Amino acid sequence: MSRLVNCSKYQKELPGLEKQPIPGAQGEKIFAEVSEKAWLEWQALQTMLINEKHLSLIDPETRKYLLAQMWRFFKNEDVDQPEGYTPAQDG
Fold first, then answer.
1. What is the pTM of this model?
2. If DSSP codes are grouped into helix, strand and coil, which group holds residue 45?
3. Residue 88 — very low, low, confident or very high, per pLDDT cuts 50/70/90?
């Protein structure tokens, strides 16, 4: 049986990640508070941001920006979107 977490994004219990996705305190917090579904959705958005904004992960400012966007995403706050991006409609 998979581990359940009270997902900060969806505000309900959902299957959690199998292991910390990143090392350290941030990874521990993600592991404890973020569902696998929300993490996978964030990874897709993060990839779009990196590609569309031509971000370099070698730049410490880029990593700080992505970390801030990630927590905004998990808290259901406004996050940057790639230019011209329209999310898919449910249904």
1. 0.86
2. helix
3. low
**Homologous superfamily of the 4-74 domain (CATH):** Fe(II) trafficking protein YggX (1.10.3880.10)
- Please, where are the H alpha helices in the chain? 24-33, 36-52, 60-74
Distances (CA, A) of 50 to 44, 66, 67: 10, 9, 12
Cβ(23)–Cβ(31) below 8 Å: no
For 33-52, write each residue's pLDDT tens digit: 999 999 999 999 999 999 99
Measuring CA to CA, which residue among 55, 76, 52, 75 is closest to residue 66?
55
pLDDT in tens, 58-70: 999 999 999 999 9
Q: Enumerate the domain spans of the chain.
A: 4-74
CA 56 to each of CA 42, 50, 76, 80: distance values in angstroms, whole numbers, following the listed order: 18, 7, 25, 16
Which residue bears the tokens 């997902």?
Answer: 7
